[in-house]
Amino acid sequence: MGLDIRLPIGFLFSIFGVLLIAFGALSDKAIYERSLGININLEWGIVMLLFGALMLFLGRRGTKV
Amino acid sequence: MLRIIDWTIMIVYFVFVLGIGAVLKRYVKTSTDFFLAGRSIPAWVAGLAFLSANLGAQEVIGMGASGAKYGIATSHFYWIGAIPAMVFVGVFMMPFYYGSRARSVPEYLRLRFDEKTRGLNAVSFAIMTLFSSGISMYAMAKLIQILHIFDAPFAWLGLPQAWIFHFSLVISALVVLGYILLGGLTSAIYNEVVQFFLIVAGFLPLVWLGLKNIGGWQGLKANLDPSYTHSWLGMSNPHTNRLGVEWFGLSMGLGFVLSFGYWCTDFLVIQRAMAANSMNSARCTPLIAAFPKMLFPFLVILPGLIAIALPTQNLANLAGTHAATTIEGRGLIPAKMDASGQVIRDKDGTVELDYDLATPNMLLHYFPTGILGLGLTALLASFMSGMAGNVTAFNTVWTYDIYQSYINKKASDEHYLWMGRMATIFGIALSIATAYMATRFNNIMDMLQLVFAFVNAPLFATFLLGMFWKRTTGHGAFTGLLGGTMAAALHHGLTLPQGGVPGVKGGWIAALHIYPSEMAQNFWTAIYAWTTCFVITIVVSLLTRAHDEKELKGLVYSLTERPTQQGLSWYQRPAVLAVVVLAATGLLNIIFR
User: What is this model's ipTM?
Assistant: First the structure.
């Protein structure tokens, strides 16, 4: 099939990662009381962005070959 | 309370889901593209879709609920109830499904047996998929209502809150309809893979926070009765474990009959493997799926266990009710309420808990706005993947096995492609009707189990004999299936679970035997159905004329060449993957015994 599935996954996770990182950096720290004081938006946003970037890298490499 | 960031995440996801369909639209030219993704899907993609198609309502919410109710023993639904069957279908059965070039499971039955066996299977399967997809839809709309996701926008628009249920139902149906109409099975498979990653991304941080909070596995053990944290403890007697079933009923009923009946014969999952790009990919599909499947209990069952282990707190602000009163419950799980807002108690006066809220309440408890949007999106994704899986299986079986076989035999390929799209539309319309019917039933999990027991339980006996005993005949298979299903109904009608009232719970003929739990009754219904089908098929086959051996090439084990594993790396060999995943599952059973 013409579309490498890793590309949409990569885009989606990168967008989610960026959104969560931005919101995590700007948001009031008081909302993190429920997540045990951890800024889970920022931390998990970074993980999602890294995963998204990896998928984009693999997808692009796969499409070129 | 949801804020703009949560809505943005949800909307981005829906745009992506439909966008994938739109991009794939130009690749759909023939009916094979639409129904079988042009048989071009790589093994890992097919594998994750194989897993994800089964991630419907019963998985994420139901397994969290069972985790809270039964404890870690719920993992039997994975380690016994899935992995061995997934290994078996990949290693032993896929050569016939994929190798015969059948386009569906009923079509394999047509090639191997005869027209009537196919017809029986096609019709019962079509009904079952509509049923399951309706249940998925119902559960999703109900959940959206309970979590008050749309309350604020509805209030803002001045619409009555009672419409939320209908709105959620229709909108989820439209999204699934949209992406399947556009890209067919490829679209469904691609979205299932996205959904798989999304579910992991949404639940991993939840489990992490929960375990950190409670002090890890040791903390769970310290806070809970040992019956919650052991999967094999007390399994020698149904009265000494939380499931209420003994090891034999569990391993034969769930581990053999129900599990093999589902994973090895259900077209919903087999379709994903049939769409793979080669014989070896098709064989690897369920094996690749088995690895994440083996680890899924930690993602979906642990939230339930954590929810019940946490100190009981005021659930009023969690459950979303605006009342300031304290809601009774245990941990994060509220008590069930009747229509007048009274707590429901059983006859001993113990509060009945609404276990289905275990996982959603965990999300609300630990996730601040932002990641809460991600978690809810993951929940919605799991419902949609379950729905879409059923719809794609339905449109294929309808078009190839019912429409092309009995209604219009010689139409052009374009016509069948058109019919597939039509089937998608009326399949979804019928699912919506089923969803409204489901408003009358309560426990989704138990009802699905009952349906599986009647229809699927005898099926595996037919396939096992058909694939591995060349003497099995069409008449044998057909009468065996009918007999098996009747045995299931009869057994259900003659037995009752403890404390059950005759009716939907069984015993509608007479209550000759009382099982310690509904689960035990279901497992034994399956065992009786399977055994009856197995015996009748053998007897009738021996009494009827055997099939010509030339016709059975590629359909029966003894008349088919073994697929070669030459020239494959070790990690591409089905046998190697099978041994690794079985050993790892065995190890998990020992660790969590």
Answer: 0.94
Alpha-carbon Rg for chain A, nearest whole angstrom, is 15
Pairing outcome for strands B333-334 and B329-330:
antiparallel
Segments forming the whole domain that contains residue B137: 4-21+43-316+355-440
Q: Given a cut of 70, is residue A1 above it in pLDDT?
A: no
Judgement on whether residues B507 and B373 belong to the same structural domain of the protein: no
Whether residue B271 sits in one domain with residue B191: yes
Residues in A closer than 8 angstroms to B367, CB to CB, are: 34-35, 40
Measured between beta carbons, the chain B residues lying within 8 angstroms of A3 are 20, 23-24, 27, 190
Which of B35, B588, B321 has its CA nearest to residue B335? B321
DSSP track, B432-455: HHHHHHHTT---HHHHHHHHIIII
Residue B538: what pLDDT? 94
Phi-psi region of B503 (alpha: psi -120 to 50; beta: other; left: phi over 0): left
- Residues linked to residue B496 through DSSP beta bridges, in sequence order: B514
Q: How far is B371 from chain A (nearest CA, A)?
A: 6
Asked if the structure places residue B394 within a domain, the reply is: yes
pLDDT the model gives residue B441: 59
- pTM across the whole model: 0.89
Give pLDDT, residue B551.
Answer: 83
B201·A34 Cβ contact <8 A? no
Q: How many domains does chain B have?
A: 2
- pLDDT of B374 reads 92
Q: Which amino acid is at B583?
A: A
Say which residue the tokens 């984009």 belong to: A56
Q: What is the mean pLDDT of chain B?
A: 85
Q: Could you tell me the pLDDT band of residue B445, with boundaries at 50, 70 and 90?
A: very low
Instruction: Tell me the chain A residues in contact with residue B213 when contact means C-beta distances shorter than 8 Å.
Output: 36
pLDDT band at B56 (very low <50, low <70, confident <90, very high): low
- Quote the minimal CA–CA distance from A1 to chain B in Å: 6
* pLDDT value, residue B589: 85
End-to-end CA distance of chain B: 40
